[in-house]
Amino acid sequence: MKHRLKFTIKKLFRMALLLLGVSLTAFLLMDASPLDPLQTNIGQAALGTMSPEQIARLETYWGVDTPAAERYVGWLGGVLRGDFGLSLLYRRPVLEVIGQRLAGSLWLLVCAWILSGALGLALGVAAGASRGRWPDRLVRGGCLTVSSTPAFWLALLLLMVFAVWLKVLPIGLSVPIGGAQATLAERLRHALLPGLTLSITGVAGIALHTREKVIDVLDSDYILFARARGEGHILRRHVLRNVALPAITLQFVSIGELIGGSVLVEQVFSYPGLGQAAVAAGLGGDMPLLLGITVITAAIVFGGNLAADLLYGVIDPRIRRGAARG
Amino acid sequence: MRTNRRADTLFLLIFAGIFLSAIALAGGLLTEPAGAADFTRKNLPPCLAHPFGTDWMGRDMLARTVAGLSLSIRVGGLTALLSGGIALLLGTVSAACGPRVDALVSWVIDLVLGIPHILLIILVSLACGRGVWGVIAGVALTHWPSLARLVRGEVLQLKQATFLRAVRRLGVSRGRVLRTHLLPHLLPQLFTGLILQFPHAILHEAGVTFLGFGLSPERPAIGVILEESMGYLAAGRWWLALFPGLSLVLVVMLFAVAGERLRLLLAPASAQE
Predict the structure, then answer these.
(1) Could you count the other beta carbons within 10 Å of the beta carbon of residue A256?
(2) Could you say which residues from 175 to 234 on chain B have a Cβ atom under 8 Å away from some Cβ of chain A?
(3) If we measure between CA atoms, which residue out of A289, A308, A202, A181 comes closest to residue A254?
(4) What is d(CA B93, CA B87) in angstroms, rounded to the nearest whole number?
(5) Most CB within 10 Å of its CB: which of A158, B29, B135, B188?
């Protein structure tokens, strides 16, 4: 137990260091940008009609006149106190904007995460166990097609079929226009297509990797031995157990890609989630918001990796003992 | 006629190479007709004269699609090469220059993998002030980590190989060991990795131009074309989105299949399957 605690603390420390690196990288990249936030948001014409005092005030608001190092240290100090600054586009605290947007994205992400994981694992095991026969070919062909398809184009196709042709599902947004008090069923209807797109794109990678692992396991000596002894339930007793670890890794590693995919998919469906906010912040030069979103998504990704590391020990007795010894 | 996998793969690779260079070349020649507006033929659904239809300015969608694919292929090729170079350099350095450097490189890899690709590409493209070079830099800087890990593992394994230890005992210089013994082992792996990297690079390029970070709206890039088509979906102009996207999927798939075949061929265990 003591060793597990030490292991966790070490990992947490590394995670904090990585987050610091992420924030610094993102900050430096944004700072290097030659795009002037005033020009992007207010426009040359409007700037021309303003007095110098007005421009100076705007420059202070967008943080153009403070040196970079000072701004970063100021930002970091704020973050340590739980203050991510003000979003320049939305004129509200960054954390508030992110919290609201994340709530919209979160159940989209969670549904897609669980669905793609479960489906990917099932398809991967089915394909690996029937290597070379038609279920395998079907899964492999399907996965190849899906992984070669851009997520946003898939979203466009689904929109065309279900919203424009069949007119059974809405064309975008998370709630009907003007409906502040949307019912759960309505929210679900609006989240169905984005969720479906994200799940489909997520399945391919997981299924293909699982298939490789299953084939590796089935080729091993212990499976040969089990077969020779005439054991039944080889798939459940041997294959699934040995595939569990890589499956967990895959599942948690896929979080990053899922968030990346949601940026594109939310844009197509004009779904007001975190990804859409990231694009708006990027196009509008809203540095505090983009920085906040980058750091928070990175924290989610690193948190996922940590969870996978910890789950290994829970699931695999060999690692548990190994950790205790080491 | 039954042929073996080696011949099949070779044929596929040659075909893919010729096909893709043909598109890349044709796109370069087609930039003129791709931008030509003709309001007498606007919004035509697919027909014989315009197999992919025309858009609201009467531009031929086939010409625009080929021009867009050409741009994607060129950008994808360049970024794959760049990220392959970064991966080779960092992977070898990480495996060959001791534990401190190794730890540093792994840290950087973790850092890059921690930010979702598309977010990092957005950040890099902002740093470059958007434009084509922003996209190229963004995609190149996000796609090296997995390849670098592969190279690192390979070099670490090779370092322990008997023949390399023997060579070193014989007093052969470091540079020569690297050139004549390490690189020939690494190159096939790297080459396959590069080809498999290509689809990801193209897809991310299309994604980030779709979001509006890459190219100006006049440039016929697949992402830009699809972004424009979104406004006409509800009007029922399905051909604006369907054909450009479908051709992109086909190009990407061609590369993915070629890369996968090559990987199986180069892995001794599966070469004869």
Answers:
(1) 23
(2) 199, 203, 206-207, 210-213, 226, 229-230, 233-234
(3) A202
(4) 10
(5) B135
* Amino acid letter, B270: S
Distance (Å, whole) CA A204 – CA B266:
24
* CA of A25 vs chain B CAs: smallest distance (Å): 9
Distance CA B162, CA B144 (A): 29
Q: Which residue has tokens 């996209």?
A: B135
DSSP states of A227-262 as a string? HHTT-S-HIIIIIHHHHHHHHHHHHHHHHHHHHHHH
Which residues lie below 8 Å from residue A288, measured CB to CB, with a gap of 6+? A75, A84, A85, A86, A87, A88, A94
Angle formed by the axes of helices A287-315 and B117-127, nearest 10°: 150
- Paired residues of A93 in beta bridges: A86
Cα–Cα dist B190/A310, whole Å: 33
* Angstrom distance (rounded) from CA A112 to CA A194: 9
Predicted ipTM beyond 0.90: no
- A86 forms bridges with which residues in the sheet? A93
Selection from B117, B96, B94, B267 nearest residue B192 by Cα: B267
- Between chains, do A278 and B127 touch, taking CB under 8 Å as contact? no
Query: Are A153 and B245 within 8 A, CB to CB?
Result: yes
Dihedral of CA atoms B124, B75, B244, A172 in degrees, nearest 10, equals -10
pLDDT tens readout for residues A27-66: 888 888 777 666 666 656 666 667 777 777 777 766 666 7
Neighbours of A182 (CB within 10 A): 16
Name the residue in chain B with its Cα closest to that of A14.
B107
pTM: 0.85
Distance (Å, whole) CA B27 – CA B29: 5
Please, what's the b/e burial string for A113-148 (b: 16 or more CB within 10 A of its CB; e: otherwise)?
bebbbebbbebbbbbbbbeeeeebeebbebbbebbb
Q: Contact A30/B118, CB-based, under 8 Å?
A: no
CA B89 to each of CA A132, B200, B238: distance values in angstroms, whole numbers, following the listed order: 38, 21, 46
Residue B167 has pLDDT above 90, yes or no: no
Question: Which residue among B116, B206, B210 places its CB closest to the CB of A260?
Answer: B116
B174 CA to chain A: closest CA distance, Å? 34
- B123 Cβ under 8 Å from any chain A Cβ: yes
In whole angstroms, what is the distance from residue B183 CA to residue B214 CA?
Answer: 35
Chain A residue numbers with beta carbons less than 8 Å from the beta carbon of B206 are 150, 152
Q: Which residue shows structure tokens 């396959």?
A: B192
Q: For the segment B137-161, what is each residue's pLDDT rounded down to a tens digit?
A: 999 999 899 889 888 888 888 888 8
Rounded-to-integer distance, Cα B89 and Cα B147, Å = 11
Of A114, A135, A132, nearest to A206 (Cα)? A114
Q: Do B119 and A294 touch (CB under 8 A)?
A: yes
Q: Phi and psi for A86 in degrees, rounded to 5? A: -105, 135
Which residue type occupies B23?
I
